[in-house]
Specification:
455 residues; Rossmann fold; 6-stranded mixed β-sheet; 5-stranded parallel β-sheet; 16 strands; globular
Length: 455
């Protein structure tokens, strides 16, 4: 981000918008005083909180990161929520009262002793928010706090933030692509773009008077939907994967979902939906051949199985590459190289068949071509997501498993990503998407498979 000049007054509730990669997360990290020193980047100008450099006011800010997995510090839920309070010197008895209050406020109904590694991605988002609320900061900074939550979770988190602000007044700055979630809470909208702040003011004026211009720049504007691809022209093809009585688990002898019967078909999309903690990501990893079933059967059939055999968990990495591609919920978990372009070449290189034209096409279609030489870890969350989708597509798998594929996307990159996935589907690839994004379910004409409440 460059040339940003603005003042945020005490007690304001600000929604920070902008296209993917416009610097929203960087700005929040700056306000929280955690951007790092000169060895990690360059900065010009000044950033002050309560009249002091932001780095000197860290205890005043509570930050919920875009990737909640990177914010988990301790092994148990209660200890993790208490961590910030302990660093602020809050008395012990008061800490545990705050911990219980924060867990209840965000709807994370698990014991304090629950291992943090056993939480789903959505539950980790609630955990991170609970830790920030327990600190009772003067400045609350939220980076896409509801992106991976089910509909009920979105409402709970918003209500928890509102209750916290009413009980313990603070300044709020929240980044969220889906504007309508926070409109009832905020009183100011700031939009970042090329050249700094491109819009700033009350929500009604900014989103109504400048809505068309902002939508063209990629901002999600209520009432202006993104383009959707056409419906598939042909019927679904053969079954490639079949689950019968399947049970799935991440921790041995602790299934999170069971009695699953489903089929994954060529040229069709299947959307796995359901509440947080129901086992959606675990099911996706099992269907992708990365976790062994804990019960029942998972069989690859016909052209997907071939000489590799019917059991995906027994396939070698090379056999998986051209059969099932996987996009994890957390992009950082599958970044391997030093440049964006190298990331797309990892799979093809392992197969001995790097297709430069294919890689160029993917980079261009997903707006990553200008970042081809960049370090993947320096990208925004939305850019990392598009990179991992591109890397999975580079080996042309027959089945593509995508966990929250539209996370972090602005309206323009969302439409471009969904259009690419629709093209892949129409070429005969089976899409299996784990998502809370109802728009992507509709746009891909996906059959829905709903997992129930956690076991």
């Amino acid at each position: 981000m460059r040339d940003v000049s603005l003042d945020i007054s005490p007690g304001e509730r600000v929604l920070l918008l902008g296209a993917s990669g416009s610097g929203k997360s960087t700005f929040l990290a700056g306000l929280a005083g955690v951007l790092g020193g000169e060895e990690e980047g360059e900065s010009v100008g000044e950033l002050v909180v309560d009249g002091a450099p932001a780095a000197a006011a860290r205890g005043r800010a509570g930050l919920v990161l875009q990737d909640p997995d990177s914010q988990v510090i301790l092994a148990r839920v209660g200890d993790d929520v208490a961590f910030g309070c302990e660093n602020l010197g809050v008395p012990r008895d008061e800490i545990w009262r705050r911990v219980d209050e924060a867990l209840d406020a965000v709807g994370l109904e698990v014991p304090r002793e629950r291992p943090t590694k056993a939480l789903s991605g959505g539950q980790k988002q609630r955990l991170a928010l609970a830790g920030a609320l327990a600190m009772r900061p003067g400045l609350l900074l939220l980076d896409e706090p509801t992106a991976n939550l089910d509909t009920g979770g979105v409402a709970e988190v918003r209500a928890a933030v509102l209750r916290s602000l009413e009980r313990h007044p603070a300044t709020l700055v929240v980044v969220e692509h889906r504007v309508e979630v926070w409109l009832p809470v905020i009183d100011r909208v700031i939009v970042l773009g090329e050249g700094g702040v491109i819009a700033d003011g009350p929500p009604e004026r900014v989103l109504t008077d400048e809505g068309e211009r902002l939508a063209a720049a990629g901002v999600w504007v209520p009432g202006i939907p993104p383009l959707r691809p056409p419906a598939p022209a042909t019927a679904p093809g053969a079954v490639l994967l079949r689950a019968e009585g399947l049970a799935v688990e991440r921790v041995r002898d602790a299934p999170v979902a069971a009695d699953i019967d489903l089929s994954v078909r060529a040229g069709a999309a299947l959307a796995i939906t359901g509440p947080n903690g129901a086992g959606k990501s675990t099911l996706g990893l099992t269907l992708a051949g990365l976790l062994p079933p804990s019960g029942g059967d998972l069989l690859a059939t016909g052209p997907l199985a071939g000489p590799a055999g019917p059991s995906p968990i027994r396939w070698s990495s090379r056999e998986l590459l051209t059969r099932i591609g996987t996009v994890f919920q957390e992009p950082e978990h599958q970044l391997l190289t030093r440049t964006v372009r190298d990331e797309l070449e990892v799979g093809p290189r392992a197969l001995g068949a790097v297709d430069s034209l294919r890689i160029d096409e993917l980079l261009e279609r997903l707006r990553l071509d200008r970042l081809a030489a960049a370090n993947p870890y320096t990208l925004s969350g939305g850019e990392k997501r598009r990179l991992t989708v591109a890397a999975a597509l580079a080996t042309r798998p027959r089945v593509l498993v995508l966990d929250e594929p539209t996370f972090g996307q602005d309206s323009r990159t969302w439409a471009e990503l969904v259009a690419l996935l629709a093209d892949v589907r129409d070429d005969g690839v089976a899409l299996l998407t784990i998502t809370h994004d109802e728009d992507v379910v509709a746009a891909l004409c996906a059959e829905r498979f709903v997992l129930g409440a956690p076991l």
